[in-house]
Design brief:
- By secondary structure, the chain is an alpha/beta fold.
- It is 50% helix and 14% strand.
Amino acid sequence: MDVEQKQGAATSGNPLRDLSKFGQSPWLDFIQRSYTADGSLKKLVDEDGLRGVTSNPAIFEKAMGYGTDYDAQIKDLLAKEILSPGELYEKLAITDIKATAKVMHPVFVQTKGLDGYVSLEVSPYLAFDTKATADEARRLWAAVSEENLMIKIPGTPEGVPAFQEVTSEGISVNVTLLFSLEAYKNVLEAYIKGLEIRHAAGKDISKIASVASFFVSRIDGKIDGAIDRRVKEGDKDAEALKALRGKVAIANAKVAYQHYLEVTASERWKKLAAAGAQPQRLLWASTGTKDKTFSDVLYVDELIGEDTVNTIPPATFDAFRDHGKLRASLTENVEDAFKVLEQQAKLGLDLDGVTKTLVTEGCASFCDAFDQLLGAVANKQATFLGSKLIEQKADLPADLKAASDAVLEDWRKTGKGRKLWAKDASVWTGGDEASWLKWLDIVDERLAHVAELEAFASEVKAKGFSDVLLLGMGGSSLGPEVIAETFGQIAGFPKLHVLDSTDPQQVKTFENAVDLKKTLFIVSSKSGGTLEPNILKAYFFAAAEKALGSAPGAHFVAVTDPGSHMEQVAKGDGFWKIFYGEKQIGGRFSVLSNFGLVPAAAAGLNVRAFLESALRSVKGASASTPPAQNTALQLGAILGAAATKFGRDKVTIIASPAIYDLGAWLEQLLAESTGKKGTGLIPIDDETLGAPGVYGKDRVFAYLRLTDAPCPNQEKAIAALVAAGEPVVTIDLADKLDIAQAFFHWEYATAVAGSVLAIDPFDQPDVEFSKIETKKLTTAFNETGKLPAETPFATSGAFAFFADDTNAKALGGGDALAILKAHFGRVKAGDYVGVLAYVERDLKTREWIQNVRLNLRDQLKVATAAEFGPRFLHSTGQAYKGGPDSGVFLQITADDHADLAVPGERFTFSVVKAAQARGDFDVLSERGRRALRVHIKGPLEAGLAELATVIKKAV
């Protein structure tokens, strides 16, 4: 700060000190830690008669964002807690406010509570929310807990009721952003009412203080600007207009002061004064001179009066000490002040309109300043945390960068990030989105109960289980699969396996992979009514009972929502434990809830450290994180803008080998969340990168990079894509545990992308259609002992081809080569090919599908999705049916060489898988998708090899 005392400044004749002789208290509109700590602030108190301090976001931004004053405390706080930028700022600010309050407290005592205050502002984001403003005022009052604190509340129509409410509760308030006489009248009335309410309740009102911050120079800035424009344009009233320059703001303030005098002379006020009430003094704010043609102390010299405060910016503070002129100016020429206001109205300068505009602009300006403040704090935070945070870098074409920046600016201006955290459905479609947002809070909630999970892990270890077999689909299985694949078997704990298929061969493979006598089975199903986990539970419950020779309930755990069918089953079958999910979290957003944490704990993962890692991402995307620092928001903006503005709706996921399975989880998150109403993001996972030339202009590449184990081939390929101008978002994870951060990061980004796409990212209407069709088919089997007959439109060797009438007509007939050539001949630029294989997912079939999809990509220059059914039905299936009509699908089914009975059912696993495939295909066809099904008869391996050969020839 540039406040300097000249030699002898404290002696008589110091205008600042002598303001008290006129009943005015000089306050300083400035706060800085070093200035308080080195005694400079106290020197102003002692030598200049300083009587109070105000702060605002702009002041704190300059103090916290630059230099090293706060570094030691920031390091200390971040070593102990995981904080959002807003929480960190508040801790820093409260430290400053308390230190300043201590310096000012002798003044508070000396003046018997009239002066000696320091002000702390409620978040400017709350200026138009009465309840939130009152709640924050209470919280800050309690957090600072200093009797000489004033809470700053804006004098907006929403802020005034909050001010009255907290005044009645005994909180001292500085009401800010007052520009008009009418607004001031409302504020003074609210103060009196608040005191009356408190007094009527028999409570002390003598310890409440308040000031009404009446802004001055900003009014002249607006009015004088209008005057200058009109004079320049040759207005007929030019001379009269020029006579008002620099006068309207002061006249406005003088008229407001006259209202103050009238009210404090009233019998109503005298009753309160007799009970010890202090008057609400007018505080002149914005008293620095903006117009250099005026005196630099104009708004101090001309506003000196009894029972007032002037909060003075540093430069003006120095100037007034040097050459301020003392006189009781506030009550001079009062009649002229009224005339000035009458004249401005006659000349059409519209003071009322100007003051309304200034309130709006003032709130926006404070929000902008708060954005900058929190951004500065977030930047400091990121610097100190370093690799503890996942880092994101976006290499984007200029047009996409501009479009995503526009999204970010819209979110900043409209506060959509704060609305998202407030669970405001208007961020999306205004539907029932607010009912599905508990994923925002689940990390904090689970950390509060993490001891339960840690105890469970200890019990699992003590029981000596060799394996954990999770039975589930979609959101219940994909997150746990990422954990299993990423961390492997943890020493001293059982190995985690995840089964999400009804393929009988795959079910048998998993059964053979575990020791049924020493396996803990986790049956995971949110609704409890999903077909697959129910029949998998039935099968393995019977298998375990046979292996153990007794009821196996002690080997079973359920993870399900309260009140579900699975809860009833678990209780009826004597399950060891039941862990509950949260009904207001959709499956694909549930990995950080018990659906992901229970299997993680059973497998020995340090769930506390896992959740703490996730919490860093939660805090980094908090309501207090400005878009410029919120990388999850930036990711969502990029994905949304890329799809809506440039047709880049294929999100190609590349992950370092050690964290490769993140892509499978991301597929479901992106596809189910966004693929609906004919729009959406199509995730492309596990598509080995090629040269830039094999890609169209419909891609965004998302590279999840483990910094301590990057893949050289991926690094080279990504560098080539960046050099070619393709949009690449790189997300660096310093440690495998950071996948927890990545989970939340992508959940938040997906919610943002859903907003940009103008859809509800929390429903999945088309998944249900496939379930309905499957149910029809399994019901038919139970009634007749067979599935409804179907006839291929063509056969060729080991292949039978099926399609609806429209597709069959488009494909014609002929042999396999002709049909596949016709099918892939329908692929055009911007399309993608989905290879959907209802076969066992093992190393051989995964290698086969990769070879097929890469050949299709390289030949057709389109994105390819390689999926296994029925697993993908609970994942990408939503986007294939409800998303953009750009998919060309080849569904592959085959004869099962073995089948397994489902206990208690007439149908078998093979029948269920066939029904799922047919149900899936029927919905694709009904939606008018370009879809072809090929059924392989005979040995699968030979059939797949022949099919790959024919596909290669066809393209």
